[in-house]
From TrEMBL:
SUPFAM superfamilies: YbaB-like (SSF82607). GO terms for molecular function: DNA binding. This is YbaB/EbfC DNA-binding family protein. Gene3D superfamilies: Nucleoid-associated protein YbaB-like domain (3.30.1310.10). Residues 127-136 have a biased composition (Basic and acidic residues). Residues 108-147 are annotated as: Disordered.
Length: 147
């Protein structure tokens, strides 16, 4: 291979890497996460790095114990950070693939990331939890209600 040809190919690879890095930077700039406490009184939003960008405390919190409010804020922030981190992992997976670089990124997520297998399981809606067996079967073999 001629030195000029090699240099031209190398230059193309560098340009391609620069375009890919610029695309990732743009996509990561739009990453964020949001979470609301189970009672709906606290909502937290974070950016790609997990820094707080918005905090909404609803009027129903008036008169609440400050420790309870702080706990709700921290729990919602952790959920929002996991959501944002999940988006970061998706973007980086597309960019670097399953590699040591991706494992490094994952390791730097203090609250893990959504999709890491440790997500809290959402309870099923009541209609899906109902026992729909016929009465004869239900009373012959009732559910175990005492644990």
């Amino acid at each position: 291979m001629e030195p000029d040809q090699w240099l031209a190919q190398y230059g193309q690879k560098i340009e391609q890497a620069k375009r890919g890095a610029a695309e990732v930077e743009t996509r990561l700039g739009g990453v964020g996460g949001s979470a609301t406490s189970p009672d709906g009184l606290v909502t937290v939003s974070v950016n790609a790095s997990g820094a707080l960008t918005d905090l909404i405390l609803r009027p129903g919190l008036r008169g609440e114990d400050p420790e309870r409010i702080a706990s709700a804020v921290m729990a919602a922030a952790a959920q929002a950070q996991r959501a944002a981190a999940g988006q970061v992992v998706e973007i980086m997976t597309e960019f670097v693939g399953d590699s040591p670089a991706l494992e490094f990124v994952k390791a730097k997520m203090p609250n893990g990331y959504s999709g890491d297998g440790t997500d809290a399981v959402e309870p099923q809606p009541e209609l899906q939890r109902r026992d729909t067996r016929p009465d004869d079967e239900y009373f012959t073999n009732p559910p175990d209600v005492m644990a």
